[in-house]
Amino acid sequence: MKKVKYRHSAARLVLLSVSFIFSINAHVIAQDSPLSENEADVQETVQGPEESNVEAEASGGDAAAGKELFNTLCAACHKLDGNSIGPALRGVGERRDSEWLHEWIKNSQALIASGDEQAVAIFNEYNQVAMPPFPQLSDTDIDNILAYTNAPKAVPQEKQVVGGDAAATGGGGSGVSTDVILGILALVLLMLLVILFLVNKTLRRFAAASGVELPVREKRAGKPIWKSFVENQFLVILTSVILVLVGSYFAYGYLMQVGVDQGYQPIQPIHFSHRIHAGDNQIECKFCHSSSRVSKTSGIPSLNVCMNCHKSISEVAESTATEEYSKEFYDGEIAKLYDAVGWDVQNQAYTGETEPVKWVRIHNLPDFAYFNHSQHVEVGGIACQTCHGPVQEMEIMYQNAPLTMGWCINCHRETNVRTAGNEYYEKVHEELTKKYGVEELTVAEMGGIECMKCHY
Amino acid sequence: MSSNKKYWKSVEELKPNSSIVETHSHKEFVEEIPTDEFLGDKASLEASTTSRRDFLKYVGFSTAAASLAACEGPVMKSIPYVVQPERIVPGVANYYATTMADGFDFSSVLVKTREGRPIKIEHNTMGTTGANARVHASVLSLYDNKRLQRPLANGEVVSWEQFDREIKEKLNAVDGQIVLLTQTFASPSTSKIINEFSQRYGNVRHVVYDTVSEDAALEAFQARYGKRALPSYDFSKAETIVSIGADFLGDWAGGGYDAAYAKGRIPQEGKMSRHIQFESRFTLSGANADKRIPLTLSQQKAALAALHGYVTGGSSSNNLPENISQALQSAAKQLRSSGSGAVVVSGIPDVDAQSLVLSINEALGSQVMDTANPRMLRQGNVAQVKQLVADMNAGQVGALLIAGVNPAYSLPFANEFVEGLKNVDLKVAFSMKKDETAMLSDYVAATPHYLESWGDVQFTANKFGLMQPTIRPLFDTSQFQDVLLRWSDNNTSYSDYLKQLWEGSMGSTPWTDALHDGVFEGTAPGGNSAVTETAAAGAAGEGAVGAGSFDDSSAVRNLSSAAAGEGLELELYTSVAMGSGNMANNPWLQELPDPITRASWDNYLMVSRIDAEEMGLENEHVSNGALNGSYVNLKVGDTVLERVPVFIQPGQARGVVSLALGYGKKEGVQREMQVGVNAYPLYKDFSSFQNVTIEKAGGMHEFACLQLHTTLMGREDIVKETTLEIFNTKDVHVWNHMPQVSLNHVETPVTSPDVDLWDGFDRSVGHHFKMSIDLNACTGCGACVIACHAENNVPVVGKEEVRKYRDMHWLRIDRYYSSEDTFHEDIEKKDNMSGLGDSLGQFKELEVASDNPQVVFQPMLCQHCNHAPCETVCPVAATMHGRQGQNQMVYNRCVGTRYCANNCPYKVRRFNWFLYAKNEEFDYHMNNDLGRMVLNPDVTVRSRGVMEKCSFCIQRTQKTILDAKREGRAIEDGEFQTACSAACDKGAIVFGDVNDENSRIAALSEDDRMYHALEYVGTKPNVMYQTKVRNTTEA
């Protein structure tokens, strides 16, 4: 059974009903649950460790400049720690002779051809993949790079969650202050009540002492109020009408959210973070979900697509880890991918043993509803986030939109068709704009809310 | 004139006081809602303590509880590829060209695959033969639940390695001949492989066996032209076609001639071909003919001899009845005047007859017949098959390898074959099913379906087709050619072998192009033609030059003297749905109604009305309109076939009864589909003409016949027809009259907006889809019906439900009979009578309208009325009109009141009485995982209780529109297609956007022949029909 995060609980219903009675607001049922719980987690303000640790070494060479060069030229095949296409480079300056290194970097193939033993050995060790020559690098550049690689491995520091802290204190501060004020007010009110009671009591005592006769309220021999209410037919009818109306309103609201899985956030077999991919690294959605350009499905990327990058990215950067998820956790998830696709990290080769990943499907349309991604994404030019929400901020993917028919139709009524520059629309756009006397056509005006455009 | 004729769908309607017809024309539904059945036993109901109110309370409570409990949806998994194949994009269909060749049907096809699954067959417009209903249905046979999944040795599952090893050992040690008994492969590469196999083992004989034989035609052709082949015909060039017993629109000579035929049938510039059919049973060809003369089988032979005389010599002496003789004379006259546009074809299973046909066509100088580039699709050799069975019984056969045929079921002398099989040491069957022959074999090699196989097919001498797999084999199968290669110690795979063989022999076509197109022209490589050539026996080896040099006199003599034997004559034929019976386990085909009889799920003995009356055989309609028929026992020679149901067929020649082959299969066929009787034991000497004696048997058979369903209900003008003469000479309104209504005492056409109840909408903006169906080009073949099933996930409901008129066909082909053109022809008939005996019979015929009716086929589907009666009555607005002209049906909104079906004048809406998918009660393809793989993922599988109907294939039009939008271009004419219009290789169904002024459909909507069915109802349909024109011009 699905676990839907923001399903209305009974308590929520009560709360809603209370708020409804006070503010007859038609939009209470609209499902716009705030996602505040996760927001704090998502804010990532961790600083990278390297900057603080890397200091210009005495051996000469500017590690900062070296880092820049390393990231542009070397990082595609080398990592500081751990083998990739080429060997790990941390401390390479200590392992190898500097002159040899210079020669190798400038033109490794020439060095191999010359029969240099070390060069041939390393060439063979790494599957005879030739390293491209870098004649454009000056000696200084190479020194800079080496300086960067020679920096000792950063000791994972305590994360400086300065921003987070600040936000927490800030947010907490305002929360506390209102609470305090409210508390004080309540206390004052309570005290006033107590004082009033005490004053009253004292006055009575004074009166008794001074012999003043207090007028005693006569007990009226009338009917109790509930009895008169019951006898007042108008009131009874009015109340029952109101009760029925309110009841049906909530029953309707409850039933309408049956089968609506907005906020559905299942645990996936691999913890894939859209935040890291689409957010931090700004990978375009359609880079992986490529079939959304041509097909009705956006397509869950096949694992070979993952491996295009993850062949050389076997671990996340320190900076990627968050309070909630450590670097080890993320690296473990990448290892799950390797297991599934059958990638042997040690030997940098496929084993051929694969195990398809069984993702839990989040966005489910009923069988009788036809939806085509390419129509919206490619033809309509709609951003993925319009329906899927801020995916680039989602650590765990969830269903952002209710995916109800009303939600679809609403958008079709409000959105204009992107006709510009599309020869298909030329004639029909001209004729329809004339007919309706408008500049731009909405999807609905184009016939986009006809039943059988989506139900067949 | 169009409206003077009386049309009828069933003989029952011709009876003046038929209570059944009367009730049916007033009834909303064929059946009352079965409340009694639903409520069950009345007594126990009344005894129950639960009152109606209590019951409702319980129901209400449990429904509410159930729906609340069901609020949580199930968790769905989504599993991507580990490594996605480059060409597959989930959600996008790929098309591959391949060739179907199962020994009976040969066709170039396009296969639509989704996520690697073939889901639909389209006909390949580049191919030489069209695709019939069986070809379209063949995709479902790929997912047949009864398929053999692994090789078997003595009934045990074995690995292929073991299988190969054991058989190779036995082949090496075999005592006696090794015989390959195969279907017609028509495959040059297979011929070569068999040759190599022969060389490897020596003492190998290859016997080709066609289940339904064309031996006579092959023999005649071989004697004259030296090639064991059949002449090719191009009926689009024909001006006059005379057929004597040849159902060339059906399966005659390999079939596939209907598309070219239909081209010549559409009147252009006042001309169309004339088709005269002499035949015994009512065939598709007879139904499409301009003139149809029923005659007995022995008369067919005499008629052919006489025609030969009339064509070559101008005269002939014969003792045929006068009307036939005259028809022959006039046909001969017409043939002669048409010259090279004339052609005679015949289906008489007799070498003399087939030889005469060749002579006649040569004498005429026919350009329609092509002997230089003959057809290779039938290779069976009757003499060799007989010899083989004799050898088997004599113990001379050491090993028998059977591929693609099921002789234990289909041989006329199957018993002898089974006996002989006991003398064979090694029996290997290559089969997709555990069929009758496989049951008797030691080893069964599981073979793949053609959609999983490689191959090549030689259609004609220079036209070839390639077969390529469109899916990885579903099971552990290996195709015949691969196995044979392995047994010949050749380690090449068949796919490589095929490629190597053809590279260089394809002329200028590269291999990949040929594979892409599926067809190519070339010559068979290295003399490995699919047929072996022999020297021409006669002098006429050089083809048509030798006209007349063949001595026809003995043939004429033999044929003229052919006398009717004792009793009745029996004609065995193949039905449109089942063919030779290869796909008996295909529910689509079982439920496809025969175009003429409209009966499904059965074969039956077709008997003429007069014969039936004489023998006391009956057909009767029970109260719900379903048909029952008597049983008879058939006796041919010493073979008796018991309890064959009788179907009284109008137009059946007196003295002839007909029975379809291909039914009654028991092994490898699901119980529900083991229907009909096996007629192969009567197929003596592989001749479709037999003499038979009949005796009535007890009991009545229940047919699943749609004959009386959806009667005309007293409505006229649903079909319009005229003659070529009137069409050419008279004004449109004479033969295609627009109905008028009176408005202020002025006759106004019903299409005028002034007389309409509704306001019209502006339909000039955007697309507006219309469909045109040409009644002249439609031959009734049924390919569109099956294509519609495949495209739209139309369920199969089974025989019992069809009998209750609950078939779910969105598209049906209505068949209307009409008697000959009113009085005119009756008078002619009276004048032509000669002799007392003759006239007595014929006077009787005159009184009965139904003895030689004319036929009009009318594909009937939702007419997508612009003023649709169904839309106005739906209480929940589940059906409404789209801007593009479709009448839309929304399943998820439908509550099943069936008001719409009631209000539909065309009776095209279908109600889901049950859940047909995943329901044990309907154990057809939708009830197993394998069969469900054929479902089209773009179309909803409907549930119980909703109405459904033709959607104008909106999923296809939407796809076309989306493709154009994505590519930013306008849509060209011809891009919009529905499943039926794409399947119709005759071009009878044309679909398109009428707002595109240059489109074909726009031109057709302005055509003089255009009319709407039931125009006067004022529904303004978007489906148009083109008036049928008959060429009644006598020479």
Automatic annotation (TrEMBL), chain A:
> What residue stretch is flagged as signal peptide?
1-30
Residue ranges, annotated region (Disordered): 33-61
| This protein's record includes keyword Transmembrane | yes
Keyword annotations for this protein?
Answer: Electron transport, Heme, Iron, Membrane, Metal-binding, Signal, Transmembrane, Transmembrane helix, Transport
Q: Which GO terms describe its molecular function?
A: electron transfer activity; heme binding; metal ion binding
The UniProt entry, under PROSITE patterns, shows: CYTC (PS51007)
Where are its TM segments located?
A: 180-199, 234-255
Lineage: superkingdom: Bacteria
Q: Which InterPro entries match?
A: Cyt_c-like_dom (IPR009056), Cyt_c-like_dom_sf (IPR036909), Cyt_c_III_dom (IPR020942), Multihaem_cyt_sf (IPR036280)
UniProt keyword annotation of Transmembrane present: yes
Ranges for domain Cytochrome c = 61-153
Alphabetical list of PANTHER family matching this protein: CYTOCHROME C7-LIKE DOMAIN-CONTAINING PROTEIN, LIPOPROTEIN CYTOCHROME C
What protein does this entry describe? Answer: Quinol:cytochrome c oxidoreductase pentaheme cytochrome subunit
Q: Which organism is it from?
A: Salinimicrobium sediminis
From TrEMBL, chain B:
Q: Could you tell me which InterPro entries the record lists for this protein?
A: 4Fe4S_Fe-S-bd, TAT_var_transloc_signal_dom
4Fe-4S ferredoxin-type domain sequence ranges: 769-799, 853-884, 885-914
Q: What is this protein called?
A: Quinol:cytochrome c oxidoreductase iron-sulfur protein
